[in-house]
Amino acid sequence: MSLLELRRAGLTGRLQPLDLTIHRGETTVLLGRSGAGKSSLIGLCNGSLPSDQGHVLWRGQDLKRCRPEQRRQIGTLWQDLRLVEELTVLQNINTGALGRHSMVWALRNLLQPPEPEIGSAILRQVGLSSDLRDQRVSGLSGGERQRVAIARLLRQQPMLVLVDEPLSALDPGLASDVLNLLLHQSSCVISLHRPDLMHQFQRVLGLRQGELVVDAAPSAINESTLAWLYSED
Amino acid sequence: MALQRGLKPAPALMALAPGLVLLPLGLGLLRDLHAGGAEQIGRFWLAAFQPSLERSLLTHQLTGLQVTALTALLAWSLSSCIGLVLGLLCSTTIVSTLTGLRWPALMLRRCLSPLRSIHEMVWGLLLLQLFGLNGWVAVLAIVLPYSALLARVLADQLDRHEPLALTALRCAGVPAVANLFTSLIPPVATAIRDHIGHRLDCALRSALLLGIFGLGGLGTELMFSMQSLRFRELWSGLWLMALLLALVNLLIRRLSAGHGLLLLLLALPLVTMQWSRSLHHDLSLPRWVDGAPWASSAQWIEGMSQAWIETPWLELVGETLLITLLASGVAIALPPLLRLIAPAPGPGRIVKAGWLLMRLLPAPLTALLLMLASKPTITVAALALGLHHSGVMGLVLEDGLARVDDREHQAMVALGARPRSAWLFGVLSPASKRYLAYAAYRSDVILRDTAVVGLVGGAGLGWQLMEALSSFHWQQVGWLVLVYAALTLLGELLCERLQEMT
């Protein structure tokens, strides 16, 4: 069953029109040099960069016309994290659930964050102490902030997870844990700078100079394909 | 040659260069000086150390102080609440997130510009003609410009903030209103809380100034004392005011940490209304007075063109700009100049106390003081305004100097530079950028304030406005207010450009 469909969708000057279907339960890795268009493709898939040609469909409906309750089925872990720096860890985690709750709940989250036990459980899941719950995000290290962003994503409970460079601020041991956690989500598209990890995924998408040039199973990708994908010309 | 090569003067020199205006101002003051006033000025400063402690006077002044305080607190509370709502509506980020359109926010912002461009004293005098002497006149005179100013500050803060979290939550399906509250308000909350706290200090000064122009409270008492040269009484009032300002600043600092400030804002209207009853201060619903200008609207419109023709605009605008230029020069250059004379920390503390004193003394009182020894001229008006604002600029400079990394200064001293040169290029220079950026904004405030001292100089739009008001020439009042607003808005635009450049 298809979740997300791109039909000749593109971004002028950044991403050439492409056709792509993301299926439920599928784990996909996005590979390519810096500037190849990986973040643009993620932006196109979550609607933050509206396509200026073609269509992006979420479960058969145009993404631009999707209601908030449909949009919350797509979760994103942004490269720059996009946390609210002035809020606490728990308040930030709770922002993942704002789409399911009322305005009063949103206001309560600013004054006295509700459901702290859920926040604590998720914090433990991402390897952080629940003691951090009431700390401001601005005071955390890069790795801790990244895990808070993952915790927010888990709180959102999306059907499709889009991830842009999740391992950049993490040490190797932690990177492996985080990747396992993300791969346990039902469906995901993860942009990585680590071709050596592609065998953990079911599908590989390769981008080169704004064009989708590889769409295959990891077993079908050989060394020369990877070398070409990461070459300058 | 240097300019041709694209060289820029050192920032420290740019902070000192406006001091060139001190030369013509000093010469002008010497020309108009009469020795008889020197004794009075001496008495004035001596009286600062021996204020009157007469019981009946203090009781009277304390009542006046309470009226000033309740006027300021009520005006501050109302203007903050109104300003916050208007600020949200003026933010293009908020309005476009909710409606998909930017123009309603931009349009509202333009509509509010004239409100903040007119000085509270002018609002006070205009409202006084419409409603007569009523407690609400002083309150509204502060509420109108302050609400519009807070709206602009809040909207600017919201729109300058890069909305990354906003986009992230929108993509995660968070409804627009909940998203705005969560991702946009917390990042600007601290800055806005600080600004609101600072406005209470400003509201107290404005309420005092409105009193000087006859709207009641301690200001009126101070004006009477000044006019009858009872300096010891004047200083009793000024020290009481200083005490109130210190207490209020302490209270605001304590309340700013939590939700106390918001609760105070919401509770104040009720508290002040009750307080006004105990003081027998009239805060009943204001009513139009007989003979107000709208009664003959047909004649009013007919006389508009006549008023425009008979007013010497070029001369008035030129004089207003001259007062602004001279006063800005004094206000900007005096603090670094005095610090250059006394760069050591010891005398620096004395200089800081001097700035606090300058800030405490309202510009019209400084003008009256100067007039004890000089004729009323543009020089006196500019000097009075400049000295008052140098108090503000002096404190800004001290704050900036305290933040400067001392390593450059130490390096210069180690290289054998003279103490003054080391201070100029190692301390003042790094602090100059922020100082000059604030100076551009302060010049804009000085332009608005020329209305307050125009009468003293017998020149400019401020003087003409007083003349028109006292002769009930409403058509001219209308034009003058419009020209003042246009001039201030022009100044604001220029100031924004200057800030971008620095």
Output the helix-strand order of chain B.
HHHHHHHHHHHHHHHHHHHHHHH
Low-confidence stretches of chain B: none
Name given to the CATH architecture of the domain at 1-73 and 197-233 in chain A: 3-Layer(aba) Sandwich
The CATH homologous superfamily of the largest domain in chain B is termed MetI-like
**Fourth-level CATH superfamily of the domain at 1-73 and 197-233 in chain A:** P-loop containing nucleotide triphosphate hydrolases
Q: Quick one: biggest sheet of chain B? A: none
Chain-averaged pLDDT of chain A: 90
Rg of chain A, Cα atoms, Å: 18 Å
- Beta content of chain A: 15-25%
CATH topology of the largest domain in chain B: MetI-like fold
Low-pLDDT windows of residues of chain A? none
- Note the total helix count of chain A: 8
Structural class of chain B: mainly alpha
Largest contact between protein chains?
A-B, 33 and 23 residues
Top-tier CATH class of the domain at 1-73 and 197-233 in chain A = Alpha Beta
How many domains, in number, for the residues of chain B? 2
Distance N to C terminus of chain B? 22 Å
Would you give an account of this structure?
- Chain A is α/β, with parallel strands linked by helices and 233 residues long.
- Chain A has a domain at 1-73 and 197-233: 3-Layer(aba) Sandwich (Rossmann fold).
- Chain A has helices at residues 38-46, 68-71, 89-94, 103-111, 116-125, 142-156, 172-183, 223-229, and strands spanning 2-11, 15-23, 27-31, 53-58, 61-62, 74-77, 160-164, 187-191, 203-208, 211-216.
- In chain A, helix 5 crosses helix 6.
- The longest helix of chain A has 15 residues, at 142-156.
- Chain A starts with a strand and ends with a helix.
- In chain A, 40% of the residues are buried.
- The mean pLDDT of chain A is 90.
- Chain B is mainly alpha-helical.
- Chain B has 23 helices and no strands.
- Chain B has helices at residues 11-16, 22-32, 36-47, 55-90, 92-99, 103-117, 120-131, 135-160, 164-171, 176-183, 185-215, 218-227, 231-255, 260-279, 297-310, 313-341, 345-360, 363-370, 378-403, 407-414, 419-457, 460-470, 474-501.
- The mean pLDDT of chain B is 86.
- At the A-B interface, helix 2, strand 6 and helix 4 of A face helix 9, helix 10 and helix 11 of B.
